[in-house]
Design goal:
alpha/beta, seven-stranded mixed beta sheet, 8 helices, 7 strands, 23% strand
């Protein structure tokens, strides 16, 4: 699934995370002191990562996991420590390079491979579990669902992903963000309702043997994201 809008947005995200915000993300995903606003984002991302890890089996030995939009690799490392074979992919050469530099020693059978590329590339093969933490939140709903369609075709057990929930507060924040000069903006997130996502997934012929399971919203200051688990029936 590579629609024109998906491809355009993917290019914007690559530029932003590989150049504009690389240093900020390096600091945010480390133990370095950050501003109060960024501290709430860091705390929220930590809670969301813990949520998604809790939705996976404690023992992932023998299972293949795709970390779709891995950033600096925190989730991938924890999944590998549980024994998973993790393919951790991101558009940003800078962030994946940082992830490799931070990679600790992982005891077999777990291992991590950090790759620069598109999470929808079928060349990466099939997976037991796919996790897309805050990597689909920048795409329009049709492109998000199209991406999930593509991932579902290569996944045997579960897909865990997050989206920006459509709430009054997030809608206001999204609107205010458009007031900043274009050159200073991060790629905007796209708020969407959970029911809208589930309706589009239910209408997809590619998702007939998948169903929504657990869901959880995480809000900490300036971080707001909602996780949804899809399981193969």
């Amino acid at each position: 699934m590579n629609s024109v809008s998906y491809t355009r947005r993917r290019g914007q995200l690559e530029t932003y995370f590989d150049r504009t915000a690389a240093r900020a993300w390096e600091r945010l995903t480390s133990d370095a002191p950050v501003s109060g606003i960024r501290a709430t984002v860091r705390a929220g991302r930590d809670r969301m990562r813990e949520t998604l890890l809790n939705w996976l089996p404690e023992d992932l030995s023998g299972r293949r996991v795709l970390d779709a939009g891995c950033g600096t690799g925190a989730f991938a490392i924890e999944a590998a420590r549980r024994g998973a074979e993790v393919v951790a992919i991101d558009l940003s050469t800078t962030l994946t390079g940082l992830a490799r530099n931070r990679l600790p020693v992982i005891q077999p059978p777990g291992r991590v491979e950090f790759v620069v590329g598109d999470m929808l590339d079928p060349a990466f093969g099939e997976f037991d579990h796919v996790v897309a933490m805050d990597s689909l939140i920048h795409y329009r709903t049709p492109d998000m669902v199209g991406a999930l369609d593509g991932l579902a075709a290569r996944t045997t057990r579960s897909i865990l992903f997050t989206f920006a929930p459509r709430t009054p507060l997030l809608t206001v924040m999204h609107t205010v963000g458009r007031l900043f000069p274009r050159g200073n903006r991060a790629p905007g997130i796209v708020p969407v309702g959970e029911n809208a996502i589930e309706r589009k997934l239910a209408a997809s012929s590619s998702m007939t043997d998948w169903r929504p399971s657990r869901t959880k919203r995480v809000i900490t200051g300036f971080y707001m994201s909602q996780a949804l688990e899809l399981v193969r029936t």
